[in-house]
Amino acid sequence: MSTDTTSPARAPEPSAPPSRPSWWRGRTELLVAALVLGLAGFIAVQTATMPVPPGTEPPGPRFFPTLVAIFMGGVGIALTVQVVLRPARTAAEEAPAAPVAEDGATNEADESTKAGETSGDGGAAEGTGARTAETGEEAPVRIDWRRLGLVVAALVVFILLLQPVGWLLSAALLFFGVAYAMGSRRILFDIVLSLVFSSLIQLAFVAGLGLNLPSGILGGIF
Amino acid sequence: MDAFNHLMEGFANALSPEYLFLALVGVMLGTAVGVVPGLGSSMAVALLLPITFHLDPVGAFIMFAGVYYGGLFGDSTAAILMNTPGQGSAIATAIEGHRMARRGRAPQALATAAIGAFIGAIVSTTLVAFFSPAIVELALQFGPAEYFALTVFAFVATSSVVSHSVVRGLVALGIGLTISMVGIDGLSGAERFTLGIPQLFEGLSIITVTVALLAVGEVLHVAATSHASKGEDGSLRRSGTPWLGRADLRRTLPAWGRGTLFGLPFGSIPAGGAEIPTFLAFGTERKLAARRARRGTGADEFGDGAIEGVAAPEAAASATAGTAMGTLLGLGLPTSATAAIMLAAFQQYGMQPGPLLFERDGDLVWALLASLFIGSVMLLILNLPFAPLWAKLLLVPKPYMYAGIAVFSSLGVYAAASSMVDLWLMLILGLLALMMRRFDIPLAPVLIAVVLGPVAELELRRALAVGQGDVSVLVDSGITVGIYGLLVAIGLTVAIGRVRARRAARGKAPVEAGRG
Predict the structure, then answer these.
(1) Contact A56, B188 (CB under 8 A)
(2) Looking at the domain assignment, is residue A16 inside a domain?
(3) Quick one: A156 and A88 in the same domain?
(4) How many domains does chain A have?
(5) Distance between CA B122 and CA B13 in Å, rounded?
(6) Which domain holds residue A27?
(7) How far apart are CA B279 and CA B162, in angstroms?
(8) C-alpha to C-alpha distance for B82 and B371, rounded to whole angstroms
(9) Which one of A84, B231, B378, B427 has the fewest beta carbons within 10 angstroms of its own beta carbon?
(10) Dihedral sign of CA atoms B59, B60, B61, B65 in order
């Protein structure tokens, strides 16, 4: 059975306060409602303080944002009410059994054991989660914060390095980082593959199509 | 016949070796992206946008059309073999198609899908080519109030009719409208929601938004949840002849026709793409099969791989894609997420789709329409015998596939404007997309709102300025009343149809079979 009882302690954003997990369970969507209401507030404040150029015709630049702010406020409240009254079905209720044998293709099984090991270090038990239903409906699945964090980190490093270091190396690093995060462990092969991939793109788009990619520290060579 | 002559000129233009080559590259790349699990035609168009940056407009749009249709074909291949539809349009196909594949009838399912998509595309493109003068005629009567009514129609239809939960659809719509307001207001010159960042003065680029929401969001989503995902190992890729027997053809031929009929009208109204018509077509086939079984004139195979269940939705999906192109070209109105990206691409070249496009860039429009025919033929040739080969792409290990998507997304976003701000926005919006997917909030309304939001605001303000603040100008003409009336009617019909289609998709509910 799924053991999705506590929120992972290493969560980078406050997904749920640990004190009352029973109430918050299935209601983490309140975060979205908070975001929507926050956006509504942001639009409202910005609209109210917006400097309007003199001589603007009556339905001016504030008119539409005001409508959107009201709309967002209404939708945010409606979502809050809906989530509080009808919390989402949790993974535990949705998936009565672990994935059955016919679905457990070998490489998938491999991966889930890997994921189980890695998150085991963190002290959280690995939930079986819910499977994609035949209709394409998805029940909430526990988020793998470690993998997600790695991918986001790879993207952040790529953006920071792109201009100083150049496309070739930073894109290779991005490729390697995402591949590693997704569970690839053939380090040496991956390094070579990443470099080949980013060089191919550099060749095809800069030399072939004339796009402008930052060359960075390798600028002298190319 | 005027349209016919124009179309022939278009063919003469599109059949040049250079454009044929671009069309071929487009359909190949589109199919390749579509085959990737979780990616569909709109992501194919968004991801492949940078490739077309340095082509001339005609070549770029010929390639786009190929990518669009190729994405549809590829997506149904993935749906049938892996049960991983990348877009709403392929979900209905996946239901029976994947069951056929499990029974060892994968080649027949793929062939049925390919031919169905071909028929839908050819019929709808023909209609578009010959009715576009009429669409343009209609569009010329549109004023600000009429265009505003159309955008409202698009907003309501995509956000509340198409999504599973009305509130979540409206949340997506609001987020999209918020994104669309960033930048300098065109009418007054006021700076809005830019936080003083100069790179935001021109607003967020649709390319950044699309790639971030669809591609980066998909990578993050897979990274966050792949430990719990299910998938086939590809053992269903079986060789075998894709030829349909006479018994199969007798069942698929009428289904293709019915599916096409369902798809045609839905492409021309902004109801969020192909999800509704595909499910309507699917539900109809199910009911017809049940009736045949009761009369003893045929077997009802639904639930265990019925070929009609593949034929009809596939034809409906590609018929929708065809008429959606017509609506985009004639009215300037994107009726699906993919069409919204195409619209952005037009704007990239300084062109505004709509009635004037036919006058100003007639060559481009007719060459594009001709290339839709050419692309469909190419796809049929590429897919009928070689669909199992395309499926080999599924053998690329997942880490490399998604690493490649991440690199390619960054390339597309950066290359569009050489702006670092765009890359940060891509990351932020990617995380937003992950959150939205986690809570089942649809992404398509965001894209529609980002593209149509400025149109809606502009036309609303124009209409109100003309009416000097009198709100009744918005419902002053027969056309606006007609549009709002149609919206209400469709809302009701679709609500009923959806309940039925869902019930049908859920399996053989005894209640349903009894009523049939």
Answers:
(1) yes
(2) no
(3) no
(4) 2
(5) 19
(6) 21-121
(7) 11
(8) 30
(9) A84
(10) positive
Of A112, A174, A212, the CB nearest to B407: A174
HSE, CB side, 13 Å, CA atoms: give it for residue A148. 22
A108 within a domain of the structure (yes/no): yes
Spell out the residues 6+ positions from residue B436 whose beta carbon is closer than 8 angstroms to its own: A32, B172, B175, B217, B442, B443, B446
Of B83, B220, B418, the CB nearest to A148: B220
Residue showing tokens 């590693």: A180
The one-letter amino acid at B240: G
Three-state helix/strand/coil letters over A130-146: CCCCCCCCCCCCCCCHH
| Residue A104 pLDDT | 35
Q: What is the pLDDT of residue A36?
A: 94
* A151 in the same domain as A117: no
Query: Bridge partners of B184?
Result: B191
Quick one: A43 and A97 in the same domain? yes
Do A97 and A149 lie in one domain? The reply is no
DSSP state of A215: -
Least-confidence region, from A198-207, B228-237, B345-354: B228-237
The helix/strand count (H/E) of chain A reads as 8, 0
Q: Are residues A74 and A29 in the same domain?
A: yes
Q: Are residue A210 and residue A149 in the same domain, yes or no?
A: yes
Name every residue whose Cβ is closer than 8 Å to that of residue B144 and which is 6 or more positions away in sequence. Answer: B458, B459, B460, B462, B463, B466
Rounded CA Rg of chain A: 24
Give the strand pairing for B183-184 and B191-192: antiparallel
Last residue of some domain: A105, A121, A137?
A121
- Site from A94, A211, A213, A215 to mutate, B interface, most B CB atoms within 10 angstroms: A211
In angstroms, rounded to a whole number, what is the distance separating the alpha carbons of residues B381 and B327? 27
What's the gap in Å between the CA of B233 and the closest CA on chain A?
5
The partner residues of B293 in beta bridges, in order of sequence, read none
pLDDT in tens, B34-62: 887 777 787 788 777 777 777 888 888 88
C-alpha distance from residue B167 to each of B70, B178, B395 (Å): 33, 16, 39
Could you tell me which residues come within 8 angstroms of residue A100 by beta carbon, excluding any fewer than 6 positions away? none
Query: Which of A 165-184 lie inside 8 A of B, CB atoms?
Result: 171, 174-184
Supply the DSSP symbol for B311: H
Task: Determine contact, residues B335/B154, Cβ cutoff 8 Å.
Answer: yes
B412 compared with B461, residue with greater pLDDT: B461
Residue B118 tokens, joined: 């071909």
- pLDDT per position as a tens digit, B99-148: 888 887 888 888 888 899 899 999 999 988 888 878 778 778 888 888 88
Q: For B163-194, give the DSSP string.
A: SSSHHHHHHHHHHHHHHHH-EE-TTT--EES-
Task: Determine, yes or no, domain membership for A138.
Answer: no
When CB atoms are compared, the residue of B167, B233, B398 closest to A78 is B167
Query: Which member of A36, A52, A184 has the closest CB to residue B190?
Result: A52
Interface test with B, best of A63, A68, A112, A190 (most B CBs within 10 A): A68
Q: Which residue from B minimizes the CA distance to A73?
A: B174
Same domain flag for A80 and A29: yes
pLDDT single digits (tens) B97-110: 888 888 878 888 88
Q: Which residue has the higher pLDDT, B175 or B35?
A: B175
Same-domain check for residues A107 and A29:
yes
Q: CB A64 to CB B461 under 8 A?
A: yes
- Tokens for B9, please give them: 């000129």
Which two tokens mark B405?
Answer: 């998507």
DSSP lists the bridge partners of residue A104 as B231
Residue B228 half-sphere exposure toward CB, CA atoms < 13 A? 24
User: How far off is chain A from B415, nearest CA to CA, in Å?
Assistant: 7
